[in-house]
Amino acid sequence: MSSAPDTPVAEARADILARIAAAAKAVGRDPASVTLTAVSKKQPDDRVEAALDAGQRVFGENRVQEAEARWGERRDRVPDLELRLVGPLQTNKAEAAVALFDVIETLDRDKLAKALVKASKKTGRTPRLYVQVNTGEEPQKAGVAPGDVVDFVDRMRDEHGLAIEGLMCIPPADEPAAPHFALLAKRAAECGLDKLSMGMSGDYETAVRLGATSVRVGSALFGERPG
Questions:
Q1: Which residues contact residue 132 at a Cβ distance below 8 angstroms, ignoring those fewer than 6 apart?
Q2: Which DSSP letter does residue 104 get?
Q3: What family classification does the UniProt entry report for this protein (predicted)?
C-alpha cells in the first residue's frame, strides 16, 4: 500500500494521530481505542479529498442537507466511509439523517427519538446513537442536562427501544474542558456506556486522557474554514 500523499491535511492528520496515541499511552490506553472523526463541515472539497487520500474514513457533519450534497456520490466511491452527524437534528430531517448517517451523536429529546424510530422502520437503517449532554447547562445549547442523563437513557431504551451507544458533549467555550469530560465519563459509567464522543481541535488530547473513544477535529486537521 502506497504512503499517503504529502499534503498539509495528510501531515496534520499524521500529527493528530500521533498526539492521540501519546495521550492514550500516557494513561495506559490502547491508541486504537480512539477514533478520529474529521469534522468536514463547510470545508472545501479539495481538503476533504486530501483527507480521504490520506486514509481518513470517519467524517462528521453538522447539517443533513450539506452532508447529502458532499457525500452522496462519495458514498458509492468510498465503501468503507463512516459518516457521523455531530450537529443538532430537527425532527423533520430525521428520515434523511437515518438514510445517510451511520452514527447520530445528537439525540436529546423524546420527540426526536420517536422520529428516529419511525425513520428507521421506513428506511430499514439503524444508525448508532449517542445522547448529547449539555454538561455546562447552557440555555443556548442543545443536550440533556447532566442530572437527567441516566433517566433519559433508560427511557430511550425502555420506551423507544433504542440502543444507545454512548454520550457526546460540547463543553462551554469559556471554561476548562477537563471537568466537563470527566462529568460525561461519570454519567456514561452510570448508564453502563463505554463510548464517549468528546474533544475538539483545542482539547482532544485532554479528552483522550479522560476516556474519549472518539474525538471531533476540524480546524486542526483541515485548517480554518474559508470565510
A1: 105, 106, 107, 108, 142, 143, 144, 167, 168, 169, 170
A2: E
A3: Belongs to the pyridoxal phosphate-binding protein YggS/PROSC family.
Q: Are 50 and 223 in contact (CB under 8 A)?
A: no
pTM of the model as a whole? 0.95
CB 84 within 8 A of CB 71: no
191 alpha carbon, distance to own chain's centre: 19
- Judge whether 1 and 46 are in contact, CB under 8 Å: no
Question: What are the extents of the domains in the chain?
Answer: 9-218
Q: How far is residue 62 CA from its own chain's centroid?
A: 10
Q: What is the distance between the alpha carbons of residues 84 and 81, in angstroms, rounded to a whole number?
A: 10
Strands (E) located in the chain: 35-39, 58-61, 82-85, 103-107, 128-133, 164-169, 195-197, 214-217
pLDDT digits (tens, 9 = 90+) for 110-123: 999 999 999 999 99
pLDDT in tens, 2-35: 445 579 999 999 999 999 999 999 999 999 999 9
How far is the C-alpha of 179 from the C-alpha of 193, rounded, in Å? Answer: 19
Calculate the CA 111 to chain-centre distance.
21
Q: Are 43 and 218 in contact (CB under 8 A)?
A: yes
3-state secondary structure string across 88-102: CCCHHHHHHHHHHCC
> Which residue in this structure is represented by grid cell 427519538?
113
Phi, psi of 128 (to 5 degrees): -70, 145
Name residues whose C-beta falls within 8 Å of residue 104's C-beta, 6 or more positions apart in sequence. 84, 85, 89, 97, 98, 116, 127, 128, 129, 130
Cell reading at 151: 433517566
